[in-house]
Automatic annotation (TrEMBL):
Signal peptide: none annotated. The keyword Acetylation does not apply. This is VOC family protein. Keywords: Antibiotic resistance. The keyword Acyltransferase does not apply. InterPro entries: Bleomycin-R, Glyas_Bleomycin-R_OHBP_Dase. GO terms for biological process: response to antibiotic.
């Protein structure tokens, strides 16, 4: 049995361009009598229909994709977006979040693509082969980070996520270096999502100043690599 999401959009041209950047290929397209587009990547099928005067920011379109490897797919999507847009867009529409464990998804590490139609494509590992991502820390700051990820990446409430994370970063004085790096890395991403490059640069500078042991750097390898990319995107936004 196969289910194919049928999602709304304002322009099938914009959808085709965006999904082509992610590596999808067009399998069907019509402009009359009604705009319709079908895009495919491996065994993923997404279909879109155009609506006059449709406003992507008000869209409730959403679907869940279960894939074998979220990290590999995110890397492929990131490479395609950088080739097409010069960066991975983290604010506005379209945009894409980075993979993180989701407390509201049994700890599975997922990410979300918000396409030009305002549709939230929520991507998680297939449960049959997936296991919860290991947690680097379990302190108060780490728990606040988990809540912030749910608010922003699952519900789109980036401003509220930034508010609670700022409070925890200010109040928590006993967090480990690794715990603080994880929280600051996400706070910088939220600043870019909220179109505040000045705040993002300040947070990244604070993160860079944290002394890390070789063990810390090994445990935080993926996060630090994401921070390097985030720094590039911050420079791109400021230029």
């Amino acid at each position: 049995m196969i289910a194919v999401p049928l999602l709304p959009c304002a322009s099938i041209d914009d959808m085709q361009t965006f999904y082509a950047a992610l590596g999808f290929r067009r399998t069907y397209r019509q402009t009359r009598p009604d705009p319709y587009l079908a895009m495919s990547l491996d065994d993923i099928e997404l279909h879109f229909f155009g609506m006059p005067d449709f406003e992507p920011a008000n869209s409730y379109g959403s679907c869940i994709l279960q894939v074998p490897d979220t990290a590999t797919l995110h890397r492929a999507f990131s490479d395609g977006l950088r080739a097409a847009y010069g960066k991975v867009p983290l604010s506005g529409i379209p945009r894409m979040t980075r993979p993180r464990p989701r407390k509201n998804a049994e700890g599975l590490s997922g990410f979300t693509v918000i396409d030009p139609g305002g549709n939230w494509i929520r991507i998680f590992p297939a449960k049959a082969t997936a296991s919860p991502a290991p947690s680097v820390e379990t302190g108060k700051l780490a728990r606040t980070l988990e809540n912030a990820v749910v608010l922003a990446d699952s519900h789109g409430e980036a401003a509220q996520a930034a508010k609670i994370l700022d409070g925890a970063l200010t109040r928590t004085t006993d967090a480990s270096a690794a715990e603080r790096v994880e929280a600051l890395a996400y706070r910088a991403e939220l600043a870019i999502t909220l179109q505040d490059p000045t705040r993002a640069a300040a947070v990244l500078a604070e993160l860079r100043a944290i002394p890390l042991t070789s063990e810390d750097r090994e445990r935080l390898g993926e996060t630090l690599a994401a921070v390097d990319e985030l720094c590039l995107d911050t420079v791109s936004d400021a230029s």
